Structures are given as structure tokens and as C-alpha cells.
Amino acid sequence: MMLAPHPFGHDITEASLVEKFSAFRQWEDRYRQLVMLAKALPPLDAALKTPDIELSGCENRVWLGYERLENGGIHFYGDSEGRIVKGLLAVLLTAVEGKTPEAILARDPLTLFDTLQLREQLSSSRASGLAALSQGVQDIARRCL
Predict the structure, then answer these.
(1) Which of 4, 37, 44, 58 is labelled catalytic?
(2) How many helices (H) and strands (E) in the chain?
(3) In this model, does residue 104 exceed pLDDT 90?
(4) Burial, 106: exposed, middle or buried (Cβ in 10 Å; 0-12, 13-18, 19+)?
(5) Is 144 a known active-site residue?
(6) Which of 1, 88, 106, 121 is deepest in the core (most CB within 10 A)?
């Protein structure tokens, strides 16, 4: 039984996000979609919100945890108190969920954000939060090597 299951990387894939976001021309539409993605990420059980998985460098509190899968991949899970940051986390989970440490480290996890045109409108605090999330994922991948 997987800790904190979510639909990202399984039911919601990079391809489905690219398809959905490619229809949006306005930042407001992308923003609304991020909020929708945040709602699709189930809240993390309070028992899992431990200090050791809380990331620093984010305006809102953010948790990023993981567990190793039998196939060598990594299952990531997380939560945030901020809706937009939680939406950004959902996109990040889509990019890295279930992948091996090698695959995660071979490709910048933020590439998907550029494809979806999600980075250019972020406030500096959200951009630094996103960088902290990406760094967190890469740190976990390095630990798992």
C-alpha cells in the first residue's frame, strides 16, 4: 500500500497536462488550472507532515516526502498550505512520479513548467518556492542513488 497516493504521473500525465495547457492563451486560465490541479492533490495526512519533510525557502508551508518503489522508482507525495504552490507541486509530481533517481537527475524537473508556460508569470516568492521544490526532488533522487 502506497503512502499518500495521488493521481499525478498516473491518471494525470505530462501529455495530458501539455494537451490541457496548450489550449490556454491567458495566464488567468493557466492560474485557474493550477488551482484545479491543487484540488486534485489529496491533502496530506497530518501524521505525514513531519518537520523532516518540510521544505524551507517557500512562502507557504510545503511538505515533500517519498518512498522507494519495488521497481526502483520513487513515489513522491506532498502538500502545501498555499493553493498555487500546491498546484505547482502537483505539476512537479506529474513530472517525477514513479521515475528512477537516474531519470529524475537526467532531466530538469522544471522543464515541464516551461513547456506549460507556467514560469514566466510567477511572483519571485513563488518562483523561489518552485526552485525549492525542484531542489527537494533532486536531493531525494540523489539520496536514493
Answers:
(1) 58
(2) 6, 2
(3) yes
(4) exposed
(5) no
(6) 88
